[in-house]
């Protein structure tokens, strides 16, 4: 084969190869790999909560500058009611440890039923009876720190901090004059009324939270809230008054949903 024939044969092969390559399907580039986001508790959240609250109220009255016999003492009663509200907070996660801060404001249907100190008439004289009723914590809020341990999407935590709330109360003082013998009594209501207090105290509790998705989690939480005492003073005369004190503390268990950002 001459050189000219060899060159013509090589050119023919190249042309045929190019045509064959043009007939092959185009090669598709693989899609880029995108890793799934790693879950973290760090970030802002807002949410709703609802549950039940109950109290074990202890109250007592004490006499002021009263010369005549006065009936006073202590009592206790229980009440259970609904509570619900909103919360917002921020978490920081460091390894398996999570810390954060949370604030909430809530409605509370948490009343303390009335009670009365009734005099036992044993001799002529003047007696005073204190009637307490209508005490209630109708709202409360907290500002708390949270410290917990995360097991992937599950979080177990303790919480504690400041609590504040409204405390309403009412009552009256009646006077019983006993004469005799034979013993005869006449009772007259001397003074009555109510008050609205805004108390400040503390809250302490614990809970568990689980993240169903990266943006939605649910929790169950227990809190003990102590708002101190609700104090009222009934002035009977310029030199006669009776002070009434009621504990303003309660416990609650609630569930909540948090929407995470």
How would you explain this protein's 3D organization?
With 261 residues, this protein is mainly β. It has one domain: Porin. Helices cover 8% and strands 70% of the residues. It is rod-shaped. About 5% of the residues have low confidence.
Mean pLDDT: 77
Q: Spans of 5+ residues with little confidence (pLDDT < 50)?
A: 62-74
Shape: rod-shaped
User: Can you count the beta strands?
Assistant: 9
Proportion in helices: under 10%
- Tell me about the biggest sheet? 8 strands, antiparallel, barrel
In short:
The protein is mainly beta and 261 residues long. It is 8% helix and 70% strand.
What is the fold's blueprint, element by element?
Elements lengths: L2 H21 L19 E21 L10 E21 L2 E16 L2 E2 L8 E27 L2 E26 L4 E28 L4 E22 L2 E21 L1
What features would you highlight for this structure?
single chain, mainly beta, eight-stranded antiparallel β-barrel, 9 strands, rod-shaped
């Amino acid at each position: 084969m001459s050189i000219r024939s060899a060159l013509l044969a090589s050119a023919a092969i190249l042309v045929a190869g190019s045509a064959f390559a043009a007939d092959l399907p185009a090669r598709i580039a693989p899609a880029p790999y995108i890793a799934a986001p790693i879950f973290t508790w760090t970030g802002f959240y807002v949410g709703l909560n609802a549950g039940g609250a109950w109290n074990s109220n202890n109250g007592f009255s004490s006499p002021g500058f009263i010369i005549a016999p006065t009936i006073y003492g202590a009592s206790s009663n229980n009440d259970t009611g609904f509570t619900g509200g909103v919360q917002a907070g921020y978490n920081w996660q460091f390894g398996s440890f999570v810390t954060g801060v949370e604030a909430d404001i809530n409605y509370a249907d948490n009343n303390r039923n009335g009670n009365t100190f009734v005099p036992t008439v044993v001799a002529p004289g003047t007696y005073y009876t204190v009637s307490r009723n209508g005490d209630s914590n109708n709202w409360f809020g907290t500002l708390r720190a949270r410290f917990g341990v995360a097991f992937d999407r599950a979080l177990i935590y303790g919480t504690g901090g400041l609590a504040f709330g409204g405390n309403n109360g009412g009552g009256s003082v009646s006077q019983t004059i006993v004469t005799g013998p034979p013993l005869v009594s006449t009772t007259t209501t001397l003074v009555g009324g109510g008050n609205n207090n805004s108390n400040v105290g503390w809250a302490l509790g614990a809970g568990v939270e689980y993240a169903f998705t990266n943006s939605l989690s649910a929790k169950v939480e227990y809190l003990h809230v102590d708002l101190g005492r609700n104090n009222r003073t009934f002035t009977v005369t310029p030199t006669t008054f009776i002070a009434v004190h009621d504990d303003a503390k309660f416990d609650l268990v609630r569930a909540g949903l948090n929407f995470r950002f």
